[in-house]
Amino acid sequence: KNEVEQSPQNLTAQEGEFITINCSYSVGISALHWLQQHPGGGIVSLFMLSSGKKKHGRLIATINIQEKHSSLHITASHPRDSAVYICAVSRPGNQFYFGTGTSLTVIP
Amino acid sequence: EPEVTQTPSHQVTQMGQEVILRCVPISNHLYFYWYRQILGQKVEFLVSFYNNEISEKSEIFDDQFSVERPDGSNFTLKIRSTKLEDSAMYFCASSEGQATNYGYTFGSGTRLTVV
Fold first, then answer.
1. Which residues of chain B from 34 to 73 reach within 8 Å of chain A, CB to CB?
2. Nearest to B25 by CA among B3, B49, B43, B54
3. Are the beta carbons of B48 and B33 closer than 8 angstroms?
4. How far, in Å, CA of A57 to CA of A42, rounded?
5. CB-nearest partner of A95 from B31, B37, B56
6. Closest CA of chain A from B2, distance in Å
7. How far apart are CA A35 and CA A21, in angstroms?
8. Quick one: pLDDT at residue B97?
């Protein structure tokens, strides 16, 4: 049973395209996190949100608590955005659940 | 920018041996975490640590695992008797407050290979 589901699993886009990655979760959460995992394996925390919307550069993350759904958008995608994007949720008591990730490839 | 540092980056060990994975969290952070990622699978939470004790652990974190903050800077994960299925990338993370409020910073990981 997956507490966190992501779609799509794999995504290929042309440079410049607008990209959306979706995340749905089935448990009550304290916060939702979007992470980026580079081909070398390192993980970077992109966003943590518990309501509304956050923006950082070309990245936008939104969450709808009632629908238990979040989206990560990338505007004007670039080949350097190619990575695995992971949705994770944190629950009271510091328990975390991770999605399986979305592998994004941006082609020049 | 402050970093979480993990050593070694890659460790190979024989089945049954003990391994210690080391992490140096960001200096003003108070909460520490270990995660693992088996090749091709999703990241899994192992344990969180605050105020010198475990605050939360997952089902994976059984008696063969232990964590310690021996000297106020290092945060270690010990696996007592490694099994083949312990082969994974192990990530350390730290946060200033509870990650539910502050977010967290990951280290670059230690790839553990058990042979």
1. 35, 37, 41-45, 48, 50, 55-56, 58
2. B3
3. yes
4. 21
5. B56
6. 13
7. 12
8. 78
Number of helices (H) and strands (E) in chain B: give both, helices first.
Answer: 1, 11
Which residue in A has a C-alpha nearest to residue B105's C-alpha?
A45
User: For a pLDDT cut of 70, what percent of chain A falls above it?
Assistant: 97
**Residue A58 phi, psi (nearest 5):** -90, 5
Facing A44 at nearest CB: one of B101, B102, B106 = B106
Confidence label for B101 from pLDDT (cuts 50, 70 and 90): low
Counting residues of chain A whose pLDDT is more than 90, the rounded percentage is: 75
Residues A21 and A60: their CA atoms lie apart, in Å, by 11
Strands B110-114 and B10-13: parallel
**Beta strands per DSSP E along chain B:** 5-7, 10-13, 19-24, 31-37, 43-50, 53-57, 65-68, 75-79, 88-95, 105-106, 110-114
Q: Is residue A11 predicted with pLDDT exceeding 90? A: yes
Sheet strands side by side (includes B5-7)? B5-7, B19-24, B75-79, B65-68
Render A4-31 in DSSP notation, one character per residue: EEEE-SEEEEETT--EEEEEEE-S--SE
